[in-house]
Design goal:
3-stranded mixed sheet; alpha/beta
């Protein structure tokens, strides 16, 4: 069953991104491993928010399926973390987005630890912070 799921995931990522799906999944796992922090003998903390940036032409091919591809990649990382007994810094998410700075057919991966993931965490513009409330009488 697990091999069937992995094959399906690889086929989906390959079809959607046009890249070698093994390479993309390996790069995500490597990003996770590279940023692992040993907190205690039996506790290794890893980033939980991942961003996969695609060239505009590649992202356009997703045709609204970026969230689904992100979920497939999230599942890949979840299994990797379970295998190594990693702990996430917060809820795990992989966000697939478009980036003008990424070459066609390639991608760029980044990660960070975010205990809480706000809705605008992956937007290009910083969140609007409301001014502090005036002190009461």
């Amino acid at each position: 069953m697990e091999k069937t799921v992995e094959h399906w995931e690889s086929a989906l990522v390959d079809k959607v991104l046009g890249n070698d799906p093994v390479e993309l999944c390996d790069d995500l796992r490597r990003e996770c491993d590279t940023h692992a922090v040993v907190c205690a003998k039996d506790r290794v903390l890893v980033p939980n928010a991942y961003k996969v940036e695609l060239a505009p032409a590649v992202h356009e091919q997703l045709d609204g399926r970026a969230a689904h591809v992100g979920q497939v990649l999230t599942d890949v990382l979840a299994r990797h973390a379970a295998k190594h007994s990693y702990e996430w810094a917060g809820p795990l998410t992989v966000h697939v987005t478009e980036s003008e700075g990424t070459l066609d057919g390639r991608y760029r991966i980044s990660s960070q630890a975010m205990p809480n993931i706000p809705a605008d965490a992956f937007s290009e513009t910083p969140p609007v912070v409301p001014p502090p409330a005036a002190p009461g009488p």
